[in-house]
Amino acid sequence: MMAADLPLWLRPALLATVWWLGACSAQADPMWQALGLIDARDPTQAVALAPLARPSAAGQWHYLPLTPAGIEAGPQCCVRVGTRPRPSDWMRHEAPLEGRAAKFTSAQPASGLVGLLLPPGTTVTPLPPSSLRLQWPGAAGAVRVHYCTSQEGLHVTLTTDKRPPQRRAYYVSLGMDVEPSCPPP
To answer: What is the DSSP string of 26-77?
Structure first.
């Protein structure tokens, strides 16, 4: 039976049901809502990528610099993500992403950083090479983070451990030459 064969009074209900099912499947996975990205190369002008992120109950995030020393030190406290949009250097699928102003509420880092925003209590497990496994309280699964550098940028790939896995890839230009660590394409 085709939609055109349905009685006229039933067609709007069918369309509303199809729209509702599509909207439900397109909603953000809760795994992505517990994770954010931060560009604080200038800590006084930090920008958070947060359609991914919604604040923890306290409204603050911990941050984890994506450097060997930052990962060894573990997540640091704290960053508050504002509501005011700010231009961002982060890109996804070669399209720039809008960020939000972010402010360090504890001691501001001595040097700039690019990294992850995590809810308090997140367990970070380093995985060689240049990968992490993130697990946070109340989450049914985990996210694997792979990061590497190209000639002048940082690539971050987030993959859920769900079946089928969901994957998101991001890039931020660092504005300077760095030693590439990404495998050749």
So the answer is: HSPPHHHHB-EEEEESSGGG-EEE-SSB---TTSEEEEEESSHHHHHH--EE
Q: What is the pLDDT of residues 64-114, one digit of tens each?
A: 999 888 999 999 999 998 888 888 888 887 778 888 899 999 888 888 899
Q: How far apart are CA 73 and CA 79, in angstroms?
A: 17
What type of residue is 9? W
51: which 2 tokens?
């359609």
d(C-alpha 137, C-alpha 114), whole Å: 24
Distance CA 124, CA 135 (A): 7
CB 47 within 8 A of CB 36: no
* Cα angle: 139, vertex 161, 39; to 5 degrees: 75
Greatest Cα-to-Cα distance within the chain, rounded to the nearest angstrom: 68
Asked if residue 152 lies in contact with residue 169, where contact means CB atoms within 8 angstroms, the answer is no
Tokens 């700010």 belong to: 86
Check whether the bond before 184 is cis (ω within 30° of 0).
no
